[in-house]
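hiii so um. not sure if this is the right channel but i have a protein structure encoded as C-alpha cells and i wanna go backwards to a sequence. like what aa goes where. can anyone help
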C-alpha cells in the first residue's frame, strides 16, 4: 500500500469514520483525509529497528522577541506503559532541544512549543530524528511546523 496511502487511510479512519460509516461515507472520509493529509510528515511506524530523520538547513531564527518552534504532534503506538522505547527528538544544529516518545501517545494532535532563544538571530539546521526499537510500532505525525 505504501506510507502515503496508509497515512490517508489512517487519517480517514481516526478522524472521519465512526462505527456506523457506510461505503459512501468511507469514500467521503477518504477523500477528505487525502485533502487534509497532503502537508504532514509521517515518521517511523515500522515495528522494527529503524532510524529516520527529516531536516531543513538555513532556517533563519528571528532576532527579536522570544523565538520559538511550534508544531502539532500526534503519537500513535502499540507500546504500553511509560517506558520510552521509540523516540522523536527535535534538534537544532545537532543539539537535542526536546524528546517525545511512545509514552506521549494520545488520541489526537497536540501543539508543541520549543524555545529557540539560544539561537536568536542565527541561521540553523532543524531536524526531527526518529528512532524505533525492534518490537512494537510507534508513529509520529508532524504538522504545521513553524518558527516565529
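sure thing!! here u go:
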Amino acid at each position: 500500500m505504501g506510507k502515503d496511502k496508509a497515512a490517508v487511510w489512517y487519517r480517514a479512519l481516526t478522524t472521519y469514520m465512526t462505527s456506523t460509516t457506510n461505503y459512501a461515507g468511507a469514500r467521503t472520509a477518504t477523500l477528505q483525509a487525502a485533502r487534509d493529509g497532503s502537508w504532514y510528515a509521517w515518521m517511523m511506524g515500522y515495528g522494527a529497528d529503524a532510524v529516520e530523520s527529516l531536516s531543513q538547513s538555513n532556517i533563519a531564527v528571528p532576532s527579536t522577541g522570544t523565538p520559538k518552534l511550534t508544531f502539532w504532534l500526534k503519537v500513535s503506538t502499540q507500546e504500553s506503559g511509560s517506558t520510552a522505547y521509540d523516540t522523536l527528538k527535535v534538534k537544532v544544529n545537532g543539539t537535542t532541544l526536546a524528546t517525545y516518545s511512545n509514552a506521549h501517545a494520545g488520541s489526537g494532535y497536540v501543539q508543541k512549543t520549543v524555545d529557540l532563544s539560544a539561537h536568536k538571530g542565527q541561521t540553523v539546521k532543524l531536524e526531527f530524528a526518529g528512532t524505533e526499537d525492534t518490537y512494537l510500532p510507534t508513529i509520529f505525525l508532524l504538522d504545521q511546523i513553524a518558527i516565529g
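oh and The chain has a mean pLDDT of 91.
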